[in-house]
Amino acid sequence: QVQLVESGGGLVQAGGSLRLSCTASINIFSYTMKWHRQAPGKQRELVALITSGGTTNYRDSVMGRFAISRDNAKNTVYLQMNSLKPEDTAVYYCNSRRNERDDYWGKGTQVTISS
């Protein structure tokens, strides 16, 4: 059974930083890796992605503040989050996908930003 395990969430003050990690039980080199988030009462939204070739993409609200990266040797993807805002508060989920069949999700890690 494929597992994705997120870590690094927590409670920080606005303006602070956190680094999320997601380690997979599979070899991720051919997967697009994504971070999504879901705030209370809201739909899950894509935050950032990194393709197998290293191309990155971000939602507008985190551009310039968040950075996604990957270490294929460790089967791990990271999300460096800087200049955090209260509106970044959410459960952050890791997703690995290379096709409809090979699409896996972690259980999420809570990020809470206090004002």
Short description:
Helix content is 0%, strand content 52%.
Structure, explained:
The protein has 115 residues and is an all-beta fold. The strands form 2 sheets. Strands 2, 4, 5, 6, 9, 10 and 11 form a 7-stranded mixed β-sheet that branches. Strands 1-3-8-7 form a 4-stranded antiparallel β-sheet, with no helix packed on it. The mean pLDDT is 97. Strand 7 and strand 8 form a beta hairpin. It starts with a strand and ends with a strand. It has no helices and 11 strands. The protein has strands at residues 4-7, 10-13, 18-24, 32-38, 45-50, 56-58, 66-71, 76-81, 90-97, 103-105, 109-114.
What's the pLDDT, averaged over the residues?
97
Q: Given the helix and strand composition, which structural class is it?
A: mainly beta
Helix/strand order: EEEEEEEEEEE
What kind of sheet is the major sheet? 7 strands, mixed
Care to count the β-strands? 11
Low-confidence stretches: none
**What is the global morphology?**
globular
Count of separate DSSP helical elements: 0
- Fraction of helical residues: under 10%
Secondary structure topology:
Blueprint: E1 4-7, E2 10-13, E3 18-24, E4 32-38, E5 45-50, E6 56-58, E7 66-71, E8 76-81, E9 90-97, E10 103-105, E11 109-114
Parallel strand pairs: 2-11
Antiparallel strand pairs: 1-3, 3-8, 4-5, 4-9, 5-6, 7-8, 9-10, 9-11
